[in-house]
Specification:
Blueprint: E1 7-12, H1 21-34, E2 39-44, H2 46-49, H3 56-72, E3 81-84, H4 90-99, H5 104-108, H6 111-119, H7 126-140, E4 146-148, H8 154-171, E5 179-181, H9 218-226, H10 243-256, H11 260-266, H12 272-298, H13 301-330
Parallel strand pairs: 1-2, 2-3, 4-5
Helix pairs in contact: 3-12, 4-7, 7-8, 9-12, 10-12
Length: about 325
């Protein structure tokens, strides 16, 4: 890692063939701005994905696709460590050790476990229960100073901090206790479902019109936004109780790099039809160069392979010292 820069770790699951517009605007677009200021480690967290049943061939395709999307969005493989989680066995190794330093009561309180258990009642597995410990291991393995987190991940980061404090209190200064990375205002926008704007945009949305994928065709993007839920007021302004309009204004602001106030002025006196069309066109135009780069990367599988292989080697170089220290502290013979 370079100089005295702080370390940031983050990752996305390859649970579908394309990330959502929400993933992009809420996370990836922000990661790109971090890569010059921080030592960034970004992983395609495929081990997390299998807490829900996956079709093997599709998971492999999704993993490569997500890696290509990382690069197409602007992550630089020369500036960052970019790798596939399952290629670095230390994640699983540290996760087992930290399972032994995590209390059942702590995991019982995790709201995501409860949510996913309700969505997948036929497969409430132990991995789903201990998933937050693997996430803690992802972070602590690299002595990350900062972790970009959304509202739904704050609880997991708090657990990570608790585990680090507990381990350090027993064995000394082993782990850096990470802090949440809070983006600057207007960065890391939270994007909601187009059909249910009180819920986060998700690929698992039962209504396919609720979610825009990064790789959606322009005509599909425009169609989905035209169908977006708004209200009966027919006034384009950001205000309490106008969740659908607020969401579209947030999206428009993020893809055009304008303020919400400027967007409100632009659409003053215009109806929702004009507003939605303009938002749809702006999103499609913003995503077009990303989609073109993605297609180029997907045609160059040798390059993608070199990125994830070099990334895994770099990740091991960084985490080697942490793993050696942890093993020694718990009493393992270190070779």
């Amino acid at each position: 890692m370079i100089g005295d820069k702080k370390v940031i770790f983050s990752g996305i699951q390859p649970s579908s063939d394309s990330i959502t517009l929400g993933n992009y605007l809420g996370a990836l677009k922000n990661w790109v701005t971090l890569q010059d200021e921080y030592n960034c480690i970004f992983s395609v967290v495929d081990m997390h994905a299998i807490t829900v049943r996956q079709e093997a061939a599709q998971l492999r395709k999704n993993t490569i696709s997500l890696l290509a999307q990382y690069l197409a969005c602007g992550l630089d493989a020369e500036k960052n460590i970019i790798f596939v989680q399952s290629h670095v066995s230390e994640h699983a190794e540290l996760s087992w050790i930290l399972n032994c330093y995590t209390q059942m009561g702590e995991l019982n309180r995790m709201t995501q476990f409860k949510d996913k258990s309700q969505k997948h009642p036929e497969n409430i597995n132990a991995g789903l229960f201990t998933y937050p410990v693997l996430m803690a291991s992802d972070i602590l393995l690299y002595q990350a100073d900062l972790v970009p987190v959304g509202v739904d991940q704050k609880q997991h980061l708090e657990l990570t901090r608790d585990i680090a404090h507990r381990f350090n209190s027993l064995y000394g200064d082993v782990f850096t206790v990470p802090e949440p990375y809070i983006p600057e205002k207007n960065a890391g926008a939270k994007i909601m479902s187009l059909q249910n704007p009180t819920a986060k945009m998700s690929k698992s949305d039962p209504n396919p019109n609720g979610c825009i994928a990064l790789l959606d065709k322009p005509e599909d993007i425009i169609r989905k936004i035209k169908r977006a839920v708004t209200d009966s007021e027919a006034v384009v302004k950001y205000a309490e109780g106008k969740d659908g309009v607020n969401n579209l204004l947030t999206i428009y602001s993020a893809v055009t790099n304008t303020s919400i106030k400027d967007a409100e002025k632009e659409f003053e006196g215009k109806g929702y039809g004009d507003f939605k069309l303009k938002v749809g066109e702006a999103v499609a135009e913003h995503l077009k160069p990303i989609q073109e780069k993605y297609e180029d990367y997907m045609k160059n599988k040798d390059y993608l392979e070199s990125v994830y292989k070099n990334g895994a080697e770099a990740a091991r170089r960084v985490n080697r010292r942490t793993m050696a220290k942890v093993k020694k502290k718990v009493g393992f013979i270190v070779d």
